[in-house]
Amino acid sequence: MSIKVNHYAAKTIEPSYYLNFEALVIEFSVAVILGVMAIGGYNTGLWVVWVPCGAISACCVVLVLYSLYNYVSDKLTRKTVDTTDNK
Asked: Is the CB of residue 49 less than 8 Å from the CB of residue 37?
């Protein structure tokens, strides 16, 4: 004896870019802390401290800016797509 199941799939939508605000704040905080450590290492002349801390701090700042750019870019793209779909 078989069971008949009626399955109707939902309409799919494109997922939008999700900005993880907590990760953004944590990453920016790490960038600030490492930036302060890099400045301190530079002032004391410790290359072993300021070069790695400065490089990692710069990477964190770039990643924060990239995340914000992706978020704004996705919002603007969706806004223009939504307005052209209504015509």
From this structure: yes
Give the max Cα distance, the chain.
Answer: 82
> Does the pLDDT at position 86 exceed 60?
no
pLDDT value at position 21?
87
pLDDT tens per residue, range 43-73: 999 999 999 999 999 999 999 999 999 888 8
CA distance 67 to 73: 10
Can you read off the two tokens belonging to residue 17? Answer: 């870019």
d(CA 35, CA 18): 27
Among 53, 48, 62, CA closest to 33 = 53
In order of 30, 34, 71, 86, the CA distances from 49 in angstroms are 15, 10, 33, 56
Tokens of 30: 């790490």
